[in-house]
Every structure is written in structure tokens, then in C-alpha cells.
Amino acid sequence: MAEVTQQTGQCACGAITFSVRAPKTYGACHCTMCRRWTGGIWMGVVCDEVSEMSGTVREWTSSRIGSRGYCGDCGSSIWHKPRHSAKYTFGQGLFDDQKGWTLTREIFADDQPSHYALADTGQKAFTAWGTLVALLTGRLPR
């Protein structure tokens, strides 16, 4: 399991800042909702704990299974939170320290458009149903 450390980050305009405990691993989501929310692939870091958050994150209930947070000033996508989980997934690009990160998983790989592909570095790719099953059974890699 990846080492969990204290990490800091902020949105594009700096109105939202945060400190979280998280591993330096992230996943890429290819689902249609994430692509429309971010304008591309959502790259998210599952955080064990949100230690500090300053600024006002606007929340949007994006589906029956979760909500998303964004900066009301600059529009940066901040986090995704499934209803059934206490953990937030923060956007990887928001973190201050960008060195030493590892892509460990791709989810909703069956929704990935044919015009792009991530380099295969050994990360696990899950279909939509596979993503749901792995998430509910606790087998989704960190």
C-alpha cells in the first residue's frame, strides 16, 4: 500500500486551499460525467482525511451516487465524493507538490473515447460495472 502523507493544494485562483492526508497515487476516470465536468479526463486522488479547507467550495449533486465540489470564483474542479463513502477524491492537478506521483488505476475504461489513450504503465483498467463492483467491495486500487 502506498505511503500516506500530508499534502497541500489550491484551486487556479487560490480562493480554495486545502491540506489532506493522501497517498501519492491517483486514478483516471473516463466516464462521461467526469469528462464534461473537467473538460477532459478526471485525475483524482482518494484522500484519507481532509485536515484543512479554506474558502467556499460550491457543491453540486451530480448524480444519485455522489456530489462534486468546485470553486465558485474560478470554476476549478476541486473534489468528487461518493454518497456511500466518507472519503473525498481531490483533483490531482490541484496539489502543490507534483513530483513522485503514480497513476495506479483507470476507471470507466469502457467510456473512454477512441481519440486518446493513456500510456500503459501497469495501472488497472476497470469497466463501468467493474468500477462499481471494485468500489463497493473495497478492491479498487489506491
Report on the architecture of this protein:
With 142 residues, this protein is mostly beta strands. The protein has one domain (4-136): Metal Binding Protein, Guanine Nucleotide Exchange Factor, Chain A, CATH 2.170.150. It is built from 2 helices and 11 strands. The strands form 2 sheets. It has an 8-stranded mixed beta sheet with strand order 6-7-8-9-4-3-10-11. It is globular, with a radius of gyration of 14 Å.
Secondary structure: elements and pairs:
Elements (H helix, E strand, L loop, with lengths): L3 E7 L6 E7 L1 E5 L2 H7 L3 E6 L1 E6 L2 E7 L2 E6 L5 E6 L5 E4 L10 E6 L16 E2 L2 H9 L6
Parallel strand pairs: 3-10, 10-11
Antiparallel strand pairs: 1-2, 2-5, 3-4, 4-9, 6-7, 7-8, 8-9
Primary descriptors:
mainly beta, 44% strand, Metal Binding Protein, Guanine Nucleotide Exchange Factor, Chain A, 142 residues, 11% helix, three-stranded antiparallel beta sheet
Instruction: Label the CATH architecture.
Output: Beta Complex
Quantity of strands, as a count? 11
Average of pLDDT? 90
Structural class: mainly beta
Rg = 14 Å
- Strand arrangement, major sheet: 6-7-8-9-4-3-10-11
| CATH class category | Mainly Beta
Unreliable segments (pLDDT under 50, ≥5 consecutive)?
none
Strand residues, percent: 35-45%
Total tally of structural domains? 1
The biggest beta sheet is recorded as: 8 strands, mixed
Distance between the termini: 8 Å
How many DSSP helices?
2
CATH topology description = Metal Binding Protein, Guanine Nucleotide Exchange Factor, Chain A
Query: What is the molecular shape?
Result: globular
